[in-house]
Write a structure and sequence with these properties.
Layout: H1 2-56, H2 60-92, H3 97-100, H4 105-137, H5 139-145, H6 148-171, E1 177-178, E2 185-186, H7 195-232, H8 241-265, H9 275-301, H10 304-312, H11 318-322
Antiparallel strand pairs: 1-2
Helix pairs in contact: 1-2, 1-9, 2-4, 2-6, 2-9, 4-5, 4-6, 4-7, 4-8, 7-8, 8-9
GO biological process, one term: adenylate cyclase-activating G protein-coupled receptor signaling pathway
Main location: membrane
Transmembrane segments: 29-51, 63-91, 103-124, 154-172, 198-228
Length: 324
């Protein structure tokens, strides 16, 4: 009797563990599908808004900004589409990498896409902040030097830098690794074996943090310059409405990037490989993916028409509202 009771208890425990694993897998797949769908729809709506604004715009200064913004939204859109498709592909084969990816080709592509579509938005946001700082503080230089040709070249260099960082592990023969959750690939994030395991994620983190720092500095200086200019010329609102709109959008993008990417960029490779460490890593990665979902809502919500209504709510902001 006792043997049968122990066997029944063990069987029920195994069934419960199996059911729990299946439920956890189902929730992960559902979360990935929802994140991918919301990200694609959000970036699609934002892209339509930006393209329409670019087509009807006659202000050269804002045209450059909209070109940067459209490139950022397209990058986020492709990131959701490609990375989301890879996640679903992995779950389709029940995360058995040794079965569907014995040579590590899919993992290398997955890891490179994670790095490229993670670093590109940070670099583009910093480039947008620099462009807007020059547009606010040096308008003549901006209109004569930062032509559409130069902006497109800068965009190409930004994507090229992100691509080089993404391809660096393959170039130094230190390929991306399947992470502990077995649902994604990235740099070696556990106890480092040598200096390369430290250098590769360090390059990614340093570039990301420098991009965030540059965005903070340029956006702060541009906001201060715009505020000082408004205080000196209280009756002159002409030409400042689009500056206010773009600065508000950049500040929102900067805040979203700091909150979403900060935890992952400042994270050091752990000395231990426990479940809590794995869960924290997966949580920080999921937070970073939300950056690509929230970015387009900045352009959807912080448009001139919406900002007018916001400024009208506060009497002290009425003077700013008139500039729209």
């Amino acid at each position: 009797m006792s043997t049968n009771g122990s066997s029944d208890t063990l069987y029920r425990s195994e069934v419960a563990a199996t059911n729990g694993t299946c439920c956890l897998k189902q929730r992960s797949v559902t979360a990935s599908v929802i994140s991918m769908t919301v990200g694609i729809l959000s970036n699609g709506v934002a892209l339509v808004i930006l393209v329409k604004s670019y087509q009807r715009l006659r202000i050269k200064s804002k045209a450059s900004f909209l070109l940067f913004a459209s490139s950022l939204v397209v990058t986020d859109l492709l990131g959701h589409l490609i990375n989301g498709s890879l996640v679903l592909y992995v779950y389709r084969f029940h995360r058995k990498w040794e079965t569907f990816d014995p040579h590590g080709i899919v993992c290398s592509i997955f890891g490179a896409c994670m790095v490229f579509y993670g670093l590109s938005p940070l670099l583009l946001s910093s480039a947008m902040a620099v462009e807007r700082f020059i547009g606010v503080t040096k308008p003549i230089f901006h209109s004569t030097v930062l032509t559409s040709h130069h902006v497109k070249r800068l965009l190409g260099l930004t994507w090229l830098l992100a691509a080089l960082v993404a391809l660096l592990p393959m170039l130094v023969q230190r390929p991306y690794e399947v992470q502990s959750s077995r649902s994604w690939c990235f740099f070696h994030m556990e106890q480092p074996k040598d200096w390369l395991d430290v250098l590769l994620p360090l390059i990614f983190s340093v570039l990301g943090l420098l991009a965030l720092l540059l965005s903070i500095v340029c956006n702060t200086l541009a906001s201060c310059a715009l505020l000082v200019g408004r205080l000196r010329n209280k009756q002159r609102c002409r030409g400042t409405s689009y500056h206010i709109e773009m600065i508000c959008q950049l500040l929102a993008i900067m805040l979203v990037s700091c909150v979403c990417w900060g935890p992952l960029l400042v994270r050091n490779p752990p000395a231990a490989n426990g479940e809590s460490t794995r869960f924290r890593l997966l949580t920080t990665v999921r937070m970073a993916t939300w950056n690509q979902i929230l970015d387009p809502w900045v352009y959807i919500l912080l448009r001139k028409a919406v900002l007018k209504k916001i400024f009208m709510l506060k009497p002290r902001l009425l003077q700013i509202q008139r500039c729209f």
